[in-house]
UniProtKB/TrEMBL annotation:
Transmembrane annotation, as ranges: none
Recorded coiled-coil stretches: none
Lineage, broadest ranks: Bacteria, Bacillati, Bacillota, Bacilli, Bacillales
Residue ranges occupied by any HTH araC/xylS-type domain in the UniProt entry: 169-267
Domain of life: Bacteria
Gene3D superfamilies reported in the protein's UniProt record: Homeodomain-like (1.10.10.60), Regulatory protein AraC (2.60.120.280)
Species of the source: Paenibacillus shunpengii
Protein's UniProt keywords contain Signal: no
Alphabetical UniProt keywords: DNA-binding, Transcription, Transcription regulation
Protein name: Helix-turn-helix domain-containing protein
InterPro entries: AraC-bd, Homeodomain-like_sf, HTH-like, HTH_AraC, Tscrpt_reg_AraC-type_HTH
Pfam families linked to this entry: AraC_binding (PF02311), HTH_18 (PF12833)
Length: 273
């Protein structure tokens, strides 16, 4: 069986609604459906109940699940006529998709951080589907598999969907995405609109480590890979990995790996030869 048959993307797109919209398919959508809310809000049927769907809500539907979507000014508050809702949606099918779906129990809705890495997967699948002539039709299938596995990773990293755990993972994502630059605790906290003390508490409670220690771990791992595989000078490695001085970088690197950055590079370069 070919790759595109085992996990075939049937249709994919991005919709932005400024007018009321309603869709209902009580008998199910017949194929698997991912829907990622990126802007505004709407309502959708989740676990047999019409539920508010907001930015960052990812919906996962099995082919037999009832699907109902409603977008109108009721979702935006009484007296407000604004209608605004944006989403990516992908319909797909195939034996690989069946096997993936049945590997574990999957909630209909999960809260996700709208990171560039996640959004780029949705964008790329949409762009591939828009190609008029595509000599490599298996490419959308590979992207779809990656997206499914990325969702598995999100589910494993987000065992609960409470507001506090969601905020903690937002902090974690901010650190991962910005570790190569200099930032302060105030920057982390303000990125999700909470106080520094609450950010520190939530992160420690969720991951049993401090924000700054986790940041240091990310930066050291980043520097380690660059020392081994890039031609950068050690000073440039330190700077590009988020360290504001080479002296500090040298000290913490040696404490973590038991040797200086120069010794580390020498040993690992020899192993690559």
């Amino acid at each position: 069986m070919s790759v595109e048959q085992s996990c075939q993307v049937l249709t994919a797109g991005f919709s932005f609604h400024r007018k009321p919209y309603y869709f209902s398919q009580p008998e199910g959508v017949k194929n698997y459906l991912f829907r990622l809310q990126t802007d505004g809000r709407c309502r959708a049927r989740v676990d047999d109940q019409m539920t508010f769907i907001e930015s960052g809500d990812l919906l996962l539907f099995h082919p037999t699940e009832p699907y109902e979507l409603k977008i109108d000014n009721e979702e935006n508050g009484a007296g407000n006529s604004l209608v605004e809702s944006g989403d990516y949606h992908i319909f797909f099918t195939g034996d690989w998709a069946d096997e993936w779906w049945h590997k574990k129990k999957r909630p209909t809705r999960i809260k996700v951080e709208l990171t560039e890495s996640l959004l780029s997967l949705f964008r790329q699948i949409v762009l591939e589907q828009r190609r008029i002539a595509n000599p490599f039709p298996e490419i959308p299938s590979y992207y779809m598999r990656i997206l499914c596995l990325e969702i598995d990773r999100l589910l494993s990293e987000h065992p609960t969907t409470t507001q506090t755990s969601y905020l903690a993972y937002q902090i974690k994502n901010y650190i991962v995405e910005n570790a190569s630059t200099l930032f302060k605790l105030e920057d982390v906290a303000s990125s999700i609109g909470i106080s520094v003390s609450r950010a520190v508490h939530l992160f420690k409670e969720a991951f049993d480590t401090s924000i700054m220690q986790y940041t240091l771990d990310i930066r050291l791992n980043m520097a380690r890979e660059r020392i081994i595989f890039s031609p950068m000078s050690l000073e440039h490695v330190a700077e590009s990995s988020g360290f504001n001085s080479y002296t500090y970088f040298h000290r913490v690197f040696k404490a973590r790996f038991g040797m200086s950055p120069r010794e580390f590079r020498s040993i690992h370069r020899e192993q690559l030869l």
